[in-house]
Structure formats: structure tokens, C-alpha cells
Amino acid sequence: MGVVPVKEAQKLANSKNLDLVKIAPQAKPPVCKIMDYGKHKYELAKKEKEAKKNQKVVTVKEVRLSPNIEKHDLQVKVNQATKFLKSGDKVKVTLRFRGRELSNISIGKKVIDEFKDMVAEISQIEKEAKLEGKQMIMVLTPKNS
């Protein structure tokens, strides 16, 4: 409509039973639009809700191991991790050292490497195994195939 005085624009909006909405108040002169503001707010909320619906929430599941774990127990933990990875979750593998086990970190490293090899087909490493205090932590993500 071009440059119109504020009072005239307000009268125009009132005559059409609509609202006068400032689009760019910093501009010289300010840019306004005649619209149904309630409908505009509703459509914005609808778009936001739709965007949330399409969002994928990634959860992190944890699998705990110990350095002196038996083969079958390790296989059970691998099966758990496999189930988590197939459902699209990240897996945090935690190997906890207790007491004197901390003096033999190499045993724990072998266990975590064996675990990594067993799930290598369906996962990729996001964070390499690293000793943090009394725990060795590794994070795996599902492979995109």
C-alpha cells in the first residue's frame, strides 16, 4: 500500500476486522502488515509442533563391564548393546575397575577391544576407549548402512 500514516493504517485494519502488526519496527518508516494475528500465531505454533514431531531424540544406553568378565557374560552384554544399536540408540560402554584391578589396565583394554570387535559390524566408534578415573569409557553409535 506504500507509506501510510499510523492512524489511517489502524482505521483500515479496524474496518476489515483485522490487526495491524509491525513486521520490521526498526526500519524507517516501520513496516506493518494488516492480518489476523490470532490465525498467524496458530499457524506458527502448528509449524513448531510439526517440526518437533519430525525430530529424532537420540538416547544413550549404558552397558557395564568388568575386567574379569566371563565369555558368556560378555556375549550377553554384546547382545544387549546390539539390541540398543539396532533400535537407533547410542551405547556407552563402561568398564569399571575395582581395587587392585586398576593395576592391570591392559586386561581391561583387552576386554573392551574384544567387545568392540564383536559389535564392529553394526556400530562405529564415536569416542575411543579412554581411562577416566577408575572407569574406561567408550561410546558407540549405530552404523548408517
UniProtKB/TrEMBL annotation:
Family matches, as SUPFAM superfamilies: Translation initiation factor IF3, C-terminal domain, Translation initiation factor IF3, N-terminal domain
Span of domain Translation initiation factor 3 N-terminal: 1-51
GO molecular-function terms, A-Z: ribosome binding; translation initiation factor activity
Keyword Transferase among UniProt keywords: no
Keywords: Cytoplasm, Initiation factor, Protein biosynthesis
Domain spans labelled Translation initiation factor 3 C-terminal: 58-143
Family to which this protein belongs: Belongs to the IF-3 family.
Assembly and binders: Monomer.
The name this protein goes by in its record: Translation initiation factor IF-3
Organism the protein comes from: Anaerovirgula multivorans
UniProt gene name: infC
